[in-house]
Amino acid sequence: MSQDDQKRLAGRAAMRYVEDGMIVGVGTGSTVAHFIDALAERRADIEGAVSSSEQSSRLLKERGIPLLDLNAAGEIPLYVDGADECDGHKCLIKGGGAALTREKIVAAAARKFVCIIDPAKRVDVLGRFPLPVEVIPMARSYVAREIVKRGGQPVWRDGVVTDNGNWILDVHGLRITAPIELERDLNQIAGVVTVGLFAQRPADVVLVGAEEMR
Ligand code: 5RP
């Protein structure tokens, strides 16, 4: 089974959490694209979707799913999103698609966060995937120096501008054994907008796309 088939199975499995009349928070990425395809089949049953990125907003619009503003929607019952890595405590690394800030906001506003992944995303310890950190552009070098002091090797994702007009540093060389503490620490560096660690608010449910889901 290909990795894309595994992503499709995970995306479709998340539909069991979608209830009639719901507002659904929608993440970003290729796994989420499969979820959006499945959600489109039930678009008449839901109130609409709160999107976490311009990319997902485009897909949702193309599939006729009403887009809702988070400020009007308030707390949302369900958020479905992918991840770049997931540990045994459902803590995640996210932001491979540079959408981490809006993803973290929608996840925070959601009662239930269902994470959809293929098996390659499962790890014992987070950090093999470089940790994305969104920064205010003028703070890039300062934040990078602070990260080096903490043992990371930041690499500027050159040419990428986030939906919020900011830049991304991908931090290599971390072995993240205390994700909640690291998230809190990196969040305190001036100029950091969002750390791609989802540990203070981990996923509630992780669905791993696999053959037996067929
Ligand atoms: C985007 C993300 C994605 O959820 C993450 O990169 C996983 O993507 P994919 O489903 O394409 O493997 O965090 O910012």
UniProtKB/TrEMBL annotation:
Recorded name of the encoding gene: rpiA
GO molecular function: ribose-5-phosphate isomerase activity
Pathway: Carbohydrate degradation; pentose phosphate pathway; D-ribose 5-phosphate from D-ribulose 5-phosphate (non-oxidative stage): step 1/1
Name the UniProt record assigns to this protein: Ribose-5-phosphate isomerase A
Alphabetical list of CDD domains matching this protein: RPI_A
Active-site feature positions: 103
EC number: 5.3.1.6
Keyword tags: Isomerase
Catalytic activity: aldehydo-D-ribose 5-phosphate = D-ribulose 5-phosphate
